[in-house]
């Protein structure tokens, strides 16, 4: 750990450096160089790969806890300053205070907010604690750089490439800055090489040998492209650490050749390869970004499929052994892929790893071509990052900085524009419940509650990019993103080929199921009026349990029921179109929705009133494109069919959570394979599989509402676990243990 | 779907469940349709709610909290609460379902729903793509699937016309002309063989074994593909004579592709009570897996034909 006093002094020096260089690109390169001199954590005895960092209070990063570009972690800085105040000289004290004042006004996020306020007169809420259906933050998340190019050219090769274009174009400070950036990376490699040699002197046996190899690898990276799997891994990791990257693209593709040639030449065996990969995983765990950290394997469009598949097998084996929340290992499925690789993916999932997450190229490549307007070859390079938003490796940005809560919008529509939970009038008056006397009027009111907020989010996203571009060249991304080098333009100044962005929607299914229930019972069957329904919701169903039961029994998404699914599909399409339209208006290449899962469906649900799907106040909303909790009662094919109904040309990522028992998976392995492959080849986007064991059965006993589709095998037939007598459930739990 | 035979597809049947992604009722991924009504009365049955051909009310006393919500909505005074008991007068029930939707504990169910063959098939065809890739299809089970014969034929015809593989589960108590007709509509029979001893068969299923064997012989004569399914109930039919008989049947009839042991389990025993019936084997325990494995070994026919 770097001590607070040093970190405060670093802020002073960083600030002086920042102010001293007027050229945007050179300033950034110098700041990065300075930053990396100070934030890198030294190599430790058990490290397999070199590279770890600890953010400074002020610095440069694509994203750091809701801050970005030139960021300022004000709270931590002020706390540290207070702590070390007496250790500073009077001059240092003054300079530190001045630096704090400077960054308070000059951090990039602040600049985005000011521009937003200039346009709209207020600041957009930045999380679910703020009222209304929309929030946003600032970041450049999820850009997947072209690691293939990095590995192919190595640092010296990248420098050569820059020089070619520099000469052609007559030179620019952009190219000069990129050269500094590459020299900085070499310096980092050298620095870690020295540390590795130090460790080699202090250790024996395998450890010593490991550090000697690591030192040699780091030195080699300064003079040429990586020649071995270890060098390739090390280069990818050192670049990621220095650039604060958290998503690692198609690793089997860009490292497959090195891995395969090492194996063929006897440089390493498979076991050593897995050990290196586990060394990388150890680093992933230290970084601990469980919502990011995607590693992609498989799929169409890999340079040398056979080599890549070999590495994919080793990566999956490493994940099986590591059995942790990172990396979010993701495999792309396609018709005709290696059966061995697919089987391995099934086996690792069957052990309850929840990885690899599987995506369908059959569904997604044609969809990505359409939604992003790109060629098939480009679409083949799609990767989901973070919670599941797509970007094109080396070709597009796609940051998802905002949340849109559809259930909250419905709450506002039912209260004439008032966020009833927070008692705040959001200012969009779409009619009282009395006035909404048809389903169409209610639906129109819902869309209207969203239209203006989504436009603001699009505008904010555009500002997020423009401001980043005004402040910096994003050298670490520009270097490895098409077509920055060839065009001589930085990422956000016309460099990146596709400047896309995404918008995370939440509460889709809770909102759709609520609309379905209202349509059926209020407008069609007239069991009660809309004002009466709103009263029940406002009272959180207290005194209205029978009505709640009725609403719960309404058709629900996830059962392959046309009535319920149509509502969800239409709502999805309408919000998608609205989002994309506003994206075009503000000048983004593409701005599309994702319906992915992070904890926000539960967290934001806490701030939502009761809903007409039967959900009570503050309960979680349905997650991503999953069914309302406990509502999918018609078997797994029905759930998958419902999930396949959305128009895949209107989104850039959805999540389908599927839960199966371990026993089912084992005893019907081939049928599960057919089930999943059929889904992937018929409009299924992806699956997050969880294979449940004994613990899940015990939890299912305690929380049956969450495990409606959990199947167990009893003698000659299968049953839904939750419908069984408690005594029998207990017996099955015991039997499962026995069978295991 | 073709319009031919539309009238036939308007036949209504009483269906008590349509279960999707069934992986143990025939090959591949299947949808199993459960029809109400049975002509046997197996004392170990785990689906006693299928005995009666009519829809009926089922009540689970262990889930009931005596809240009285059902009593309040019932138009026929079926539900009575006194002290800590909830009695259900099933004879008075008009099957309106009011109590079922009202019960907050899910303790009440209406078992059996009138549906047309067309309506049932509309559910079945939803998973066609899964049948096609996995070699699966539709299985009609029961009760005894052939009790609602016309409805069954309508359903099987729809499946056939749409290229869906068909299985039925049957206990063999079927008039021969019907069975013969079914051979043209069914790709695979899942044929129950329950006991070898004549007395036991009569006492525990209520039917004559000879009729079952006649049906099996007919299927063999027609060359209809068949899998034997043999419930093994400890102390009742888990004897060597029975296992030998199963082996003999497999040896005799080449249309029997396989035989499956269905070891006894007591999962259905509460269901008897829920539909107002008395379970007569209260002391029987579920068979442990290792026992089932031993039984499975006893019905294996060796490749040299030695039984």
Mean of residue pLDDT values of chain A:
94
H/E element order of chain B: HEEEHEEHEEHHEHEHEHHEHEHH
Structural class, from secondary structure content of chain B? Answer: alpha/beta
Largest sheet of chain B: 8 strands, mixed
Shape annotation of chain A:
globular
Q: How much helicity do the residues of chain A have? A: 40-55%
Overall shape of chain B: it is globular
Distance between the termini of chain B: 46 Å
Radius of gyration of chain A: 27 Å
* CATH level-four homologous superfamily name of the largest domain in chain B: Aldolase class I
Uncertain residue segments of chain A: 736-740
**What is the rounded Rg of chain B?**
21 Å
Residue-averaged pLDDT of chain B, rounded?
93
User: At the first level of CATH, what is the class of the largest domain in chain B?
Assistant: Alpha Beta
Structural class of chain A: alpha/beta
Q: Which pair of chains forms the biggest interface, and how many residues does each contribute?
A: A-B, 38 and 38 residues
Bin the strand percentage of chain B.
Answer: 15-25%
What does this structure look like?
The complex is a heterodimer of chains A (740) and B (307). Chain A has 30 helices and 19 strands. Chain A is α/β, with parallel strands linked by helices. Chain A has a domain of 122 residues. In chain A, a hairpin with a 4-residue loop joins strand 11 and strand 12. Chain A is globular. Chain A starts with a helix and ends with a helix. The C terminus of chain A is likely disordered. Chain B is built from twelve helices and twelve strands. Chain B starts with 5 loop residues before the first helix and ends in a 9-residue tail after the last helix. The longest helix of chain B has 14 residues. The model of chain B has no long low-confidence stretch (mean pLDDT 93). Chain B folds into two domains: 233 residues, Aldolase class I (TIM Barrel, Alpha-Beta Barrel), CATH 3.20.20.70; 55 residues, 2-Layer Sandwich (Alpha-Beta Plaits), CATH 3.30.70.20. At the A-B interface, helix 23, helix 26, helix 28, strand 19 and helix 30 of A face strand 1, helix 5 and strand 12 of B.
């Amino acid at each position: 750990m770097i001590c607070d006093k040093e970190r405060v002094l670093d802020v002073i020096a960083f600030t002086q450096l920042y102010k001293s260089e007027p050229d945007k690109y050179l300033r950034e390169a110098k700041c990065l160089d300075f930053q990396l001199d100070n934030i890198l954590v030294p190599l430790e005895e058990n490290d397999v790969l070199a590279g770890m960092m600890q953010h400074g209070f002020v610095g440069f990063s694509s994203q750091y806890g809701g801050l970005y570009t030139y960021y300022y972690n004000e709270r931590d800085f002020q706390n540290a300053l207070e702590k070390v105040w007496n250790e500073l000289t009077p001059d240092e004290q003054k300079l530190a205070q001045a630096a704090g004042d400077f960054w308070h006004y000059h951090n990039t996020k602040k600049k985005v907010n000011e521009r937003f306020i200039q346009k709209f007169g207020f600041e957009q809420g930045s999380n679910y604690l703020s009222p209304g259906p929309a929030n946003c933050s600032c970041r450049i998340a999820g850009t997947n750089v072209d690691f293939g190019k990095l590995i192919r050219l190595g640092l010296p090769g990248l420098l050569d490439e820059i020089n070619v274009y520099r000469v052609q174009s007559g030179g620019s400070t952009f190219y000069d800055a990129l050269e500094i950036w590459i020299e900085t990376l070499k310096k980092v490699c050298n620095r870690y090489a020295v540390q590795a040699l130090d460790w080699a002197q202090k250790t024996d046996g395998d450890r010593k040998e490991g550090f000697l190899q690591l030192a040699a690898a780091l030195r080699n990276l300064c003079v040429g492209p990586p020649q071995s799997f270890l060098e390739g891994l090390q280069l990818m990791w050192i670049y990621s650490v220095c650039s604060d990257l958290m998503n690692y693209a198609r690793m089997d593709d860009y490292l497959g050749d090195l891995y395969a040639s090492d194996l063929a030449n006897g440089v390493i065996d498979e076991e050593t390869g897995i050990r290196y990969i586990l060394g990388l995983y150890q680093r992933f765990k230290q970084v601990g970004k469980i919502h990011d950290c995607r590693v992609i394997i498989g799929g169409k469009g890999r340079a040398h499929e056979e080599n890549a598949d070999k590495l994919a097998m080793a990566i999956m084996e490493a994940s099986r052994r590591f059995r942790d929340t990172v990396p979010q290992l993701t495999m792309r499925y396609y018709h005709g892929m290696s059966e061995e690789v697919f089987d391995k993916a099934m086996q690792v999932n069957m052990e309850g790893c929840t990885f690899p997450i599987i995506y369908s190229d059959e569904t997604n490549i044609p969809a990505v071509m359409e939604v992003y307007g790109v060629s098939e070859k480009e679409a083949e390079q799609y990767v989901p990052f973070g919670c599941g938003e797509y970007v094109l490796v080396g070709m597009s940005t796609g940051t998802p900085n905002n949340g849109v809560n559809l259930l909250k919008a419905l709450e506002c529509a039912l209260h004439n524009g008032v966020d009833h939970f927070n008692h705040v009038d959001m200012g969009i008056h779409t009619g009282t419940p009395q006035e909404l006397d048809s389903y169409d009027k209610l639906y129109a009111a819902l869309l209207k509650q969203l239209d203006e907020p989504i436009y603001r989010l699009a505008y904010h996203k555009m500002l997020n990019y423009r401001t980043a571009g005004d402040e910096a060249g994003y050298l670490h991304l520009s270097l490895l993103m098409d077509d920055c080098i060839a065009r001589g333009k930085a990422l956000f100044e016309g460099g990146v080929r596709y400047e896309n962005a995404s918008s995370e929607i939440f509460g889709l299914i809770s909102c759709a199921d609520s609309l379905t229930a209202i349509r059926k019972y209020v407008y069609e069957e007239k069991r009660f009026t809309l004002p009466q329904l709103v009263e029940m919701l406002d009272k959180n169903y207290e005194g209205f349990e029978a009505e709640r039961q009725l609403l719960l029994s309404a058709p629900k998404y996830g059962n392959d029921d046309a009535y319920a699914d149509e509502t969800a599909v239409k709502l999805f399409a309408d919000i998608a179109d609205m989002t994309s339209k506003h994206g075009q208006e503000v000048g983004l290449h593409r701005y599309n929705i994702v319906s992915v899962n992070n904890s926000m469906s539960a967290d934001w649900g806490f701030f939502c009133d009761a809903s007409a799907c039967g959900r009570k106040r503050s309960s979680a909303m349905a997650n991503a494109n999953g069914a309302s909790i406990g509502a999918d009662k018609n078997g797994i094919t029905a759930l998958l069919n419902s999930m396949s109904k959305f128009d895949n040309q209107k989104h850039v990522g959805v999540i389908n959570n599927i839960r199966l028992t371990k026993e089912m998976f084992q005893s019907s392995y081939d049928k599960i394979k057919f089930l999943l492959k059929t889904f992937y080849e018929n409009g299924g986007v992806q699956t997050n599989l969880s294979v449940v064991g004994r613990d899940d059965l015990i939890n299912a006993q305690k929380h049956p509402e969450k495990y409606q589709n959990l199947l167990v095998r009893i003698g000659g037939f299968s049953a839904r676990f939750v419908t069984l007598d408690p005594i029998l459930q207990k017996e099955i739990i015991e039997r499962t243990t026995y069978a295991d | 779907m073709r319009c031919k035979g539309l009238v036939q597809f308007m036949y209504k049947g009483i269906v008590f469940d349509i279960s999707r992604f069934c992986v143990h009722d025939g090959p591949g991924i299947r949808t199993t349709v459960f029809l109400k009504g049975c002509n046997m009365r197996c004392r170990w049955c785990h689906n006693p709610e299928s005995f009666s051909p009519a829809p009926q009310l089922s009540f689970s006393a262990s889930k009931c909290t005596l809240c009285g919500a059902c009593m309040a909505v019932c138009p026929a005074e079926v539900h009575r609460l006194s002290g800590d008991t909830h009695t259900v007068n099933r004879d008075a029930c008009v099957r309106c379902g009011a109590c079922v939707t009202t019960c907050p504990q899910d303790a009440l169910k209406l078992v059996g729903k009138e549906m047309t063959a067309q309506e049932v098939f509309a559910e079945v065809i939803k998973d066609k793509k899964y049948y096609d890739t996995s070699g699966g299809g539709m299985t009609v089970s029961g009760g005894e699937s052939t009790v609602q014969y016309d409805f069954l034929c309508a359903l099987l015809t729809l499946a056939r016309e749409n290229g869906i593989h068909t299985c039925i589960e049957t206990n063999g108590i079927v008039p021969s002309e019907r069975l013969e007709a079914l051979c043209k509509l069914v790709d695979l029979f899942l044929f129950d063989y329950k006991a070898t001893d004549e007395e036991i068969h009569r006492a525990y299923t209520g039917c004559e074994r000879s009729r079952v064997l006649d049906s099996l012989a007919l299927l063999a004569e027609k060359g209809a593909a068949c899998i034997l399914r043999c419930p093994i109930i400890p102390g009742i039919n888990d004897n060597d004579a029975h296992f030998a008989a199963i082996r003999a049947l497999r040896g005799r009839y080449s249309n029997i592709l396989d035989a499956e042991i269905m070891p006894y389990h007591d999962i259905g025993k509460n269901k008897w009570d829920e539909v107002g019936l008395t379970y007569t084997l209260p002391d029987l325990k579920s068979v442990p897996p290792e026992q089932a494995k031993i039984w499975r070994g006893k019905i294996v026919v060796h490749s040299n034909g030695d039984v």
